[in-house]
Specification:
With 234 residues, the protein is mostly helical. The protein is 77% helix and 0% strand. It comes from Rossellomorea aquimaris.
Length: 234
């Protein structure tokens, strides 16, 4: 287990590094743009994403336990997670290429479809580690793993702290900050996904972007659940 712990510590150190100039400038620009958007528009987007995520999470009850085995060792669990991320990565790549090839209208449809794929993957990760996604706190944990993958560097540090202290923090968290959730996610992927709406290159960009986004989510999920694994055995 020493190797796994050292690997985890090395991964966590990435979050303490200072953001690149490009990332800081991009975040500042996105924050400024968000300030120009009317409050009513923010509320509509926030509510839309909230409902979209809630519907997806309710659908997480479809994970068949006979297909997602609960393994006893960390190595076995992570091997199964790797299989699932490869499966969903392929699904996301095909979906991104298809919607990207369709231009702006199908490109916009990619947003809820990709979100659903990500949530399904996270729900299976939870089942692999023996957690019950019918419990509210476990569904909430999925959303924090999601934010750890798709947020600004400063917000990721805050989310990582919550995940590392989940047993304490979950008692305080009754409701997710949906406004922050949607802004962080939207700002994170907007720049790349906008190119998916361009006819001619959308299919290539969509496939590549979705592949990378699922790959990134897979890595974050691996270490987020590794944190909980070590906490549970201590």
């Amino acid at each position: 287990m020493n190797h796994e712990r050292e690997e985890l510590d090395s991964w966590k150190r990435k979050f303490s590094r200072k953001s690149s100039i490009f990332k800081r400038v991009s975040k500042q620009a996105q924050t400024k743009v968000n300030q120009w958007i009317p409050e009513k528009a923010h509320n509509v987007v926030t509510e839309s994403i909230k409902k979209m995520v809630e519907v997806t999470l309710k659908g997480s009850e479809w994970v068949p336990l006979q297909q997602v085995s609960v393994k006893s060792s960390l190595k076995e669990r992570e091997a199964l997670m790797k299989e699932r991320v490869e499966f969903y990565r392929k699904a996301a790549t095909i979906e991104g290429a298809g919607t990207g090839a369709g231009g702006i209208f199908l490109g916009l449809a990619d947003f809820p479809l990709l979100l659903s794929i990500k949530m399904k993957f996270l729900s299976e990760c939870s089942a692999i580690h023996g957690y019950d996604t019918k419990q509210y706190e476990e569904r909430l944990f999925l959303l924090y793993v999601f934010q750890l993958a798709f947020s600004s560097d400063s917000h990721k540090k805050h989310v990582l702290d919550i995940i590392e202290n989940w047993d304490v923090e979950k008692e305080k968290l009754k409701e997710l900050d949906w406004r922050t959730f949607q802004q962080e996610y939207r700002d994170y992927i907007d720049f790349v996904k906008l190119f998916q709406l361009i006819p001619g290159v959308g299919a290539v960009v969509g496939a590549y972007a979705n592949y990378q986004l699922l790959d990134q989510l897979g890595e974050v999920a691996k270490y987020a659940y590794r944190i909980r694994y070590f906490h549970d055995i201590e």
